[in-house]
């Protein structure tokens, strides 16, 4: 048979029809294309969910098998929706065998291209990220292909039978129901009239055997009733499958804590998109030109309903008592919680801790004050910080953590530091059960947290958020914040699943470093100072603490003092960490029991490197530091390079220019903070009567990109995304890159300086220390 003119081939006519009419459906495919090519959601780690899906905490044959099923469901949803919307425009479908299945074959151009490109992308991604063996990516490919193939077979078998037998059994009943419903019947008849007016010329279609078949020439004799019955059958199929998918999503939401039902987040996302696509198709069919108005109305109705108490439930901090009347949050309440006498009492409490640490050293051999700062940056910063702290303890066993008096930071870096602090405390209590330097702990902090968060967002937070759990005798709603904490506590063996006051005794004995957690209060830009030991002075200047009468805006609110009546000290420590690591869309902002409602946001927004808090501490205790130490050693841990080469400016399109101002703010926020911190540090060095030495450690994002790309090259956009990464998921190559970054010459130089500092550290005097501690206790 001669090949048809390409223009009038059915696949091409369907593609042109989609481009003219079904742009919303094509937008969903475009979104998937952007994701797999890492052009959408890269900062949040969304592409990893598709290119490296996890199921039961492992990337495996099973995870790709489930993803294959989900993508096949999405593809069939696309076919069904477009068939219901546009099948009636092509009359020849009614007179060929199994019209819907033939339609799927000809409508498969876009899905086929996506499948091919996706397979190429994920196999390439797997090889780039150090598979366990050369065959592993192909095992994953087999799982994905088998999942998709079985799903397509089930659908084709179902439609192959129901298009014939279901129609014979139920077509008359469906028609009788349609006659009773005036609006649907009128819409169907209107579609027939439209079809007669419009001419979609198709000369050939692709058959089951992948052969071109000519379209019958006697279609004018075709009866409209037959097409109506075909529509009836497939519309009912659409409804049945849509109800089935909704039911599946609700079941996954209610049973999401059952490990076997925690499917890959990408699969749940595809199920959600499938439901959305089929719902849009149903609305378009029944409402036609009223569809846009109906969609806008539904969105407005949902927006209004989201303000009600039933839907707008707060994301809570676990451990706090939300059952009490909310505390008034205004300037008077802030002033009451920030009285000079209370702030000075907090300072005196910290001085007692510092004195206990200083007492172990001879009076004539003052040690330096060791402070660690760490930056935000999601899972990458958490692993980089933990790994570095572990290595520093290895180089100075029994010295480093024992003499670190303060750790400050934000977001992921603070999570890694908090885990090391908790592990260190457990090690002090039972060294055999918790060997501090084992690499398995590093693997735990690097374990995936993103999949349960996105999975919960899709199957719970968007649809229904009504499940509860109990913590500390109080009842809280389950949400993706809960999912994040549960996974984090599982990964860290429960060491962070403790109340805030858990570390108080260790800090009082000067065995553990202070570690304030300072998320941003979005209401007014102040910091919420959360700590096991009282540290309210971090929100006030030295002039205020000195009682000089200076009037200034309070810069921070003490959490334990402000929420003392709400069980502040019982706050779950992982909830405190979550407050300081609330990435947009991933982990929700926490609302606290105040009026107006206080809402917290990622600490990195105000101080992503912990430098400001560290220098505020130094300024507060400058007299004590001058009298009792040889100066300050500041170990700064960054998950990005401080000094970066200026990238060449590239030509941008109109849309890129439109978003350039916003993009510039986001990308350069770290640079702005870095320059501000440099100026602040230089000022402190000039003003303080003691030396301040900085020992920097930096993770270079460019090293990962060079390792990942065989050519060793990368684009400016790739570097920007990698530097700004905020996700809670790391690939195998990223983990290796983070570990190996310590071998960079700059970091090796800093390690050498650290070893020299620790080698010169004065030896403790146990006898004199015991006497001085006794004297301190008597004075207290």
Description:
Mean pLDDT is 83; it is low at 164-192. The protein has two domains: 6-164 and 199-226 and 267-306, no CATH class; 327-450 and 492-642 and 658-779, Cytosolic phospholipase A2 catalytic domain, CATH 3.40.1090. α2 runs parallel beside α6, α10 packs across α11 and α28 crosses α30. The strands form six sheets. A four-stranded parallel beta sheet has the order 5-4-14-15, sandwiched between helices. Strands 8-13-11 form a three-stranded antiparallel beta sheet. A two-stranded antiparallel ribbon has the order 1-2. The longest helix has 45 residues, at 136-180. With 780 residues, it is an alpha/beta fold. It comes from Nitritalea halalkaliphila LW7. It holds the Pfam family Patatin. One of its GO terms (biological process) is lipid metabolic process.
